[in-house]
Write a structure and sequence with these properties.
Elements: H1 10-13, E1 19-26, H2 33-46, E2 50-58, H3 64-74, E3 78-83, H4 89-99, E4 104-108, E5 131-136, H5 143-160, E6 171-175, H6 191-201, E7 206-211, H7 226-244
Length: 247
């Protein structure tokens, strides 16, 4: 019997790199896309992750498309999904989730109001949970948007038996396999509700963590459009009927 040298092969003991897709939907975010992409790449490189970054350009009318294409041309780990015309926030998220190929999938908005350095502490939570749904600890939005967001979250918590503090916080981490087992139909503001409600009904587990939120420094917000809000309220009742009936 050969005598052992007493040395261990550290390559066999090392934890495998995290496999993660990071994407962000963008609509007229030409000035913010480089900041968000650069930060995502820096964080993922620091983790030595097996990663991809996906930019979803939702039919922007500014230079978002060409800026995103330049970023992708300079880095083979970056891909761009283009919508020929604006389809809505829900459709942009659907495209991002469907384009993701890694074991985990994370999204944040392309408006640079979050710090991607707060992503790594979420990763260990995926050993126990299927979804990390974050909440904004100090939301940097107008009072009316904060009120609308609180009311929207409370209403959906009741309608869909959820217990989420900040339903539409765009800082969420998922096991990608979830999206092989749920359908996504919402093309607008209802998308976060639909994903979480369908996931919970399938037995997937959610945990929550607080993250910082920062003021927008470029571009214009679109989520507070009254027509978008009204349409979401109309659609939520229809969605509840579909989910309860198992559709």
């Amino acid at each position: 019997m050969a005598e052992s040298s007493g040395r261990r092969d550290v390559r066999n003991d090392a934890a495998p790199p995290v496999s993660i897709s990071v994407f962000f939907p963008c609509y007229n975010e030409q000035d913010n896309v480089p900041k968000v992409a650069d930060q995502a790449i820096a964080v993922l490189e620091g983790l030595r992750a097996d990663y991809e970054v996906i930019i979803v350009n939702d039919g922007s009318s500014d230079k978002t498309a060409e800026v995103a294409d330049r970023i992708a041309a300079a880095n083979p780990r970056v891909r761009v999904v283009h919508h020929p015309q604006n389809r809505g926030y829900g459709a942009a998220l659907q495209s991002g989730f469907r384009a993701a190929t890694k074991e985990l999938v994370f999204y944040t908005d392309g408006d640079a109001q979050f710090d991607l350095n707060e992503l790594p502490p979420l990763l260990p939570l995926m050993k126990e949970f299927d979804i990390v749904s974050c909440y904004r600890m100090d939301r940097k939005d107008t009072a009316i948007r904060r009120l609308n967001g609180w009311l929207w979250t409370k209403m959906n918590d009741v309608l869909f038996s959820l217990d989420v503090r900040d339903l539409d916080c765009a800082f969420k981490l998922f096991k990608r396999a979830i999206f092989d087992n749920i359908t996504m139909e919402s093309r607008g503001a209802l998308i976060a509700t639909e994903i979480l409600a369908r996931a919970v009904r399938k037995g997937y587990t959610i945990t929550q963590r607080g993250v910082h939120h920062y003021p927008r420094t470029a571009g214009r917000e679109t989520g507070g459009n009254p027509r978008v809000i009204l349409r979401a309220f109309k659609e939520v009742i229809k969605l509840r009927k579909r989910i309860v009936s198992g559709r």
